[in-house]
Predict the structure.
Amino acid sequence: MSGDPLPVLTDNPYFNQVGLVLYDYFTFFKTSVNNEFRQYEIWQVMLITVALTLMSEAILNFLIQDESLLVRFKKALFKTVRVTPIIGAMIKEKVDKTKAEMANDGPWVLPEGHRYQTKLPERGLSDKEVMGVLDKYNSLNDVSWQKGRCSGTIYCAEEDKNELLSEVYKNYCWTNPLHVDCFKDVRKMEAEVVAMCGEMFHHPGTASGSVTSGGTCDFTKKFYVDWITKLF
């Protein structure tokens, strides 16, 4: 230990004694480091310092993330297993099989009597003509999704609820939730929906959120949120 005295910091002898002990340990550590690096050149010490700094930063970035260490370990393990010869070959076989099945299905061909409208009409259509075009489009559908047999595509309610939804949409189709200063009613609706969802999941009171137009939009938003979070 160092014998250098530590100036008196306070009138309390206990704190002075603690300070002396800490000072001695610091001096011992400093002397040990200096002796250890005495054999190295200055440029070598600089390189070691830079390497240790980068290594420490990498360890901190690995430990301090939004996802827990267990979740990231599972992802890394799954990623490693996927590239092993046996598992990797099995996954590749399944993917190739799916690609082949999709290729064999071929492109969707319009039924006879239908064609693609690739140009704007020379004249505008009347309301009746527009509805006639929509009816012709509707005739292409051959799956009865209304019976609820198309999982993950669309879900329908009772007829009276559909009429209510149509009426609500008619009243709010000309709104833009991005401009909350103009559409304060939509802003209030969004805040209430987020609050209701948060209450069901017992949020701590500081939770926030936004309303999107559907599942695909949710996935896209989640991707960009994660991406921006990693950048900053």
Observations:
- The chain is about 60% helix and 0% strand.
- The chain has a mean pLDDT of 82.
- The CA atoms of residues 37 and 45 lie 7 Å apart.
